[in-house]
Amino acid sequence: MLVIKSFLYSLYFLKFTIKNYFPVFLYLVFTQTLIIYTKNIFLVLIFFVGYIIISSPITINIFRNIITADEIINSFTYFIDKDYTKLYIKKALYLLSSIIIIYIIHVVVLSPFFPNEISKMTIYLYILFIYMLYIYSRVMFILPAAAINKSWGLKDSYLKSKDKSIKIYLLYLTLIIPYVLINFSITNFSENSDIKVFFVFLAMFMQLFFTILNSTLIGYIYKDYIENISK
User: Fold this and answer.
1) How far is CA 22 from its chain centroid?
2) What digits encode the pLDDT tens for the residues 95-120?
3) pTM of the full predicted structure?
């Protein structure tokens, strides 16, 4: 039910808050255009970090509306100078760097057990990816906490999601797996199509919608499962 509820909320948000997310879509258009023409992998990493920062008004807007019943603000600039926005960005970058470090440590530790052939190694990397999603589903609640001006660490989120960890993980998988499959499909169609521009814009829209949907689901999970434990 939470996934359906999140989907309906996302459609509502998408329809009535264009001023809140339109700058983010323009950012995607600009960055994707540069990546297509330069084909520079380092730009992808830099722009991904930039996307986390520039999309923060969307996620904060959603989190605060769901968790604290704040009014949905149809404005991008409204959130720029807020203390909770600065805290959110700090925690988002902290979460990203922590997940990357954890992933690298796992790869280094498990690498002796990986087969040498790339084709056989892929399945192990997918399994590791699914496992990392579980870790992320336990620590991601530092983000909605930051949006309401609570400074949580990874340990706080991990412990407070303990009692509902499997349910939260399965809920998150029902969101992530379809998104990944749709993205793969768009990429495959794009490679064999004469209208690649259409698929590029479709992928950007999907990323924007996923940001809204992802934030909505995390907000509802935080409110329904985590918030009562934190009191």
Assistant:
1) 18
2) 999 999 998 898 888 777 777 766 66
3) 0.90
Amino acid making up residue 66: I
pLDDT at 13: 95
d(CA 215, CA 209): 10
Q: CA angle 222-224-229, nearest 5°?
A: 75
Structure tokens at 116: 């040498």
